[in-house]
């Protein structure tokens, strides 16, 4: 296997990356390209699916060319993706009917509030493991069918989107399904992405007829749901297509489940936190779907071919890395790397707290109308204090989730595996260890999201034989242990709760 590799398409919120891995889990090819963020109205966030597909072909070919790897050397392709982001497209032409609605998009907040008022939230949560929120794909699909401009093309059913969807002329899916369709021509998703749509019963492991009726989503437009690592394969790339080779597409996971898999959290109680645009803390709960009583989500962690699904508890934090991007956008920093230097230059935030609720608050608060807040400023407040408060907000939000996780699972986390772009920041990792009171383990290969989908695809085609091989690949780059006084940390955390309270239910306008 010295001359074969497994490729991973990592399609994220801000850009698309392709990485090829060798048998030891090391990176041998890598390319990345950003895509446009589209904000038509306050609280609305869209992506162009065509741009995402074009960028995908670009990064795959560029990475392979730069590394001198022929596409025929790819044993398999895996996909990992920004979850919940939703596309509706024409089955025959492959043209989207509208831009993709991104997971951050809040335009359906009124709809989910109406569901809650109607007393439907508990039934939905029992079936899906999810809080009723605009975050998920159900209300996004509903909005697209009701509001997207119809495709201007001939159809036996005319241009009405709902009629065309019922006739099987339109397809919907999360970004993994969109990429699989373009790669193979097949309409396929995996169980982890299906579990994030708010249309999928995670206990029965199938699309739920009652939920489809509630959101008026025709079953004819839904993708086939497969294991995350699928020995039957999702399909093959077209040998006459952009790769010029017939490569098996054999696995997919939503990005956070992919990171769980890439961090080799295969056993009950294993936990990881990924720091990206948002942060996502997942704990493997084995074959039991643990119902949360503390604002967490119950979701599917992964499924291997022939095995039952493995479940996870998840704390979804909407804005962490995006708060660093905001600092850069308002010219408080020149680049993300500068945050550590500025934060370290002051001993504390001097009483300043920043709550980065720019698109509402996720777990454990679930307030779609919360908004970003800075409190505690005085005339002596400087940008260094605000930068440090921003980094502390990432660590505090993670503690909110960690405490809920322990309360739900009954398992005390003694070590947390971390990954994502922000964990390159040693100051943040140490801050996180201090505020959690838990050791933080950063792996050598921190592209664990891409690695997880590569592992899933590679297992499906026999590139790796067992998960034990994958465990042997995992290595710690650095471990951070708590250093600050526990009472001092607890005082700061108590005031964080006060700051969060002031951010809640702020946006009264239409989202």
Describe it for me?
A seven-stranded mixed beta sheet has the order 17-18-16-15-21-22-23. It has a six-stranded mixed beta sheet with strand order 3-2-1-5-14-13, with helices on both faces. Strands 4-7 form a two-stranded antiparallel sheet. The longest helix has 27 residues, at 383-409. The chain has helices at 49-67, 109-117, 121-128, 137-147, 161-166, 175-184, 191-194, 209-214, 255-262, 321-329, 338-344, 383-409, 426-436, 448-460, 467-473, 486-503, and strands spanning 5-11, 15-21, 27-34, 46-47, 74-81, 86-90, 100-101, 170-174, 188-190, 200-201, 206-207, 224-226, 235-236, 248-254, 271-275, 279-286, 297-302, 310-317, 353-355, 373-375, 415-419, 439-443, 476-480. It contains 16 helices and 23 strands. A hairpin with a 5-residue loop joins β2 and β3. 54% of the residues are buried. α9 (255-262) packs across α14 and α10 (321-329) packs antiparallel against α12 (383-409). It has 511 residues and is an alpha+beta fold. The model is unreliable at 151-157 (pLDDT under 50). The chain is globular and about 65 Å long.
Which tags fit this structure?
six-stranded mixed β-sheet, 34% helix, alpha+beta, 23 strands, 511 residues, 16 helices, seven-stranded mixed β-sheet
């Amino acid at each position: 296997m010295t001359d074969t590799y497994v490729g991973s398409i990592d399609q994220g919120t801000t850009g698309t990356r392709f990485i090829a891995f060798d048998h030891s889990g090391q990176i041998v090819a890598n390319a990345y390209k950003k895509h446009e963020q589209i904000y038509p109205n306050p609280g609305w966030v869209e992506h162009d699916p065509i741009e995402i597909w074009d960028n995908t072909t670009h990064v795959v070919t560029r990475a392979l060319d730069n590394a001198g790897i022929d596409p025929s050397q790819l044993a398999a392709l895996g996909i990992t993706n920004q979850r919940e982001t939703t596309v509706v497209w024409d089955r025959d032409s492959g043209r989207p009917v509208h831009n993709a609605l991104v997971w951050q998009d809040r335009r359906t907040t009124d709809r989910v509030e109406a569901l809650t008022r109607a007393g439907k939230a508990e039934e939905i949560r029992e079936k899906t493991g999810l809080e009723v929120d605009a975050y998920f794909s159900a209300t996004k699909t509903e909005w697209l069918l009701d509001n997207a401009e119809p495709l201007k093309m001939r159809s036996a059913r005319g241009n009405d989107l709902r009629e065309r969807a019922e006739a099987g002329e339109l397809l919907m899916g999360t970004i993994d399904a969109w990429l699989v369709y373009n790669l193979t021509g097949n309409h396929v998703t995996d169980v982890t992405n299906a579990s994030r749509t708010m249309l999928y019963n995670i206990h029965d492991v199938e699309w739920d007829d009652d939920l489809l009726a509630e959101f008026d989503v025709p079953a004819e437009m839904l993708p086939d749901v497969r294991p995350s690592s699928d020995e039957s394969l999702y399909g093959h790339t077209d040998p006459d297509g952009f790769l010029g080779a017939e490569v098996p597409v054999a696995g997919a996971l939503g990005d956070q489940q992919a990171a769980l898999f890439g961090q080799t959290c295969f056993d009950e109680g294993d936990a990881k936190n990924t720091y990206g645009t948002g942060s996502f803390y997942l704990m493997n709960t084995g074959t039991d779907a643990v119902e949360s009583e503390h604002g967490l989500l119950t979701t599917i962690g992964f499924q291997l071919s022939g095995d039952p699904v493995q479940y996870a508890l998840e704390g979804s934090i909407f804005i962490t890395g995006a708060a660093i991007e905001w600092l850069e956008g308002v010219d408080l920093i020149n680049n993300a790397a500068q945050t550590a230097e500025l934060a370290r230059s002051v001993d504390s935030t001097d009483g300043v707290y920043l709550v980065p609720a720019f698109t509402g608050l996720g777990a454990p608060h679930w307030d779609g109308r919360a908004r970003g807040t800075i409190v505690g400023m005085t005339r002596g407040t400087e940008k260094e204090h605000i930068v440090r408060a921003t980094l502390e907000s990432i660590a505090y939000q993670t503690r909110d989730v960690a405490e809920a996780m322990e309360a739900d699972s009954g398992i005390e986390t003694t070590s947390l595996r971390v990954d994502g772009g922000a964990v390159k920041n040693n100051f943040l990792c140490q801050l996180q260890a201090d505020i959690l009171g838990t050791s933080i383990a950063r792996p050598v290969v921190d592209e664990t999201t891409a690695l997880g989908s590569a592992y899933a695809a590679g297992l499906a085609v026999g590139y790796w034989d067992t998960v034990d091989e994958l465990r042997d690949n995992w290595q710690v780059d650095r471990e951070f242990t708590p250093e600050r006084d526990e009472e001092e940390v607890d005082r700061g955390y108590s005031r964080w709760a006060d700051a969060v309270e002031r951010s809640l239910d702020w946006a009264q306008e239409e989202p």
